[in-house]
Protein 1
Amino acid sequence: NAGVTQTPKFQVLKTGQSMTLQCAQDMNHEYMSWYRQDPGMGLRLIHYSVGAGITDQGEVPNGYNVSRSTTEDFPLRLLSAAPSQTSVYFCASSARPDYGYTFGSGTRLTVV
Amino acid sequence: SQQGEEDPQALSIQEGENATMNCSYKTSINNLQWYRQNSGRGLVHLILIRSNEREKHSGRLRVTLDTSKKSSSLLITASRAADTASYFCATSGTYKYIFGTGTRLKVLA
């Protein structure tokens, strides 16, 4: 039972490049979210999903796209990377909105 | 803006002492959760308290919730060096969880 798997663990991008951060869970959880964590800022919600085909914006959605074609996968796409997107990105999933989230181990992204 | 704000931002105590951290939030909630994050790792769910509950226990953890004051507290009793971590509260109104900025706890052996 792998839980929530994020790839890659580390990534360096040049300004303007695009990329996709992968997130997969094997717990059949309906609810999935993407957060970014910056020093002194805690975790900020980027996008979330309440099931396959259903996504919505969080607190800081600009510059990011998501889709949820299957229950298992919830990729996060950076459209045109900017230095302000340098951060640690966490994916999390939950079976129900009143259950705790299971977090992945994170992707550390640097945009130069 | 952040929904939850933890207080204090940082806390340093001796092993064996109790650690108390607080969380204040702004809007009505369905439940409130506390998470722990060890340096460089993902967050780990500790405990959830629903809006109709006032107190909950799990091992050495005690959580209280005061919805009239929009605040919660996390008490860790008999702290250990292994409790050194950052602690975050997260509030949920519907489907999305909003996290606070965290309390950095350091337990000195």
Protein 2
Amino acid sequence: GQQLNQSPQSMFIQEGEDVSMNCTSSSIFNTWLWYKQDPGEGPVLLIALYKAGELTSNGRLTAQFGITRKDSFLNISASIPSDVGIYFCAGPSSGGSYIPTFGRGTSLIVHP
Amino acid sequence: NAGVMQNPRHLVRRRGQEARLRCSPMKGHSHVYWYRQLPEEGLKFMVYLQKENIIDESGMPKERFSAEFPKEGPSILRIQQVVRGDSAAYFCASSALAPANTGELFFGEGSRLTVL
């Protein structure tokens, strides 16, 4: 089945630093989604991408839909302590159902 | 609160007991999804339901697990004869449109099942 590989698995950074994480797929996607999960909570959608090459921002977050349609990147600028959490990429499953498949996540810890 | 509501938030069961997890989707949403999250892992799809119908249950274990989304009331994920390996966080999500028309799922806060 299709796989989503996220990297890095975890990041430990200082407040104010920029963060970059990515996600690659074994198959072509028509949609890329980035979710954030705070500790003890459910995932919340951050950014949705629908077109190859698309670059979309949401405040300090910027995500890009890779040209090959097999990857996506999420950048966070000037990180703050509340950015702590797990960031998941997701894309529609293959086989016709289009139900989002999630990567294993990138865990972000921000030191004040 | 117009969000996805899940209950209970925490559930403790002994091996062999039954667990019932409930999910009320966002108002106006008729598509419901259940995902399972094990510690240090991502979300694994279990089942997708639309009112009164199971659309895709490809992620559901073949035994002991069942799901329903009746015409009236919340969606229910039922786990019979629980085992320790069932301990996980179970998340429900809903969407207004079918997955082919949107990838934007709205998640509840999850139900955390612990099997002793």
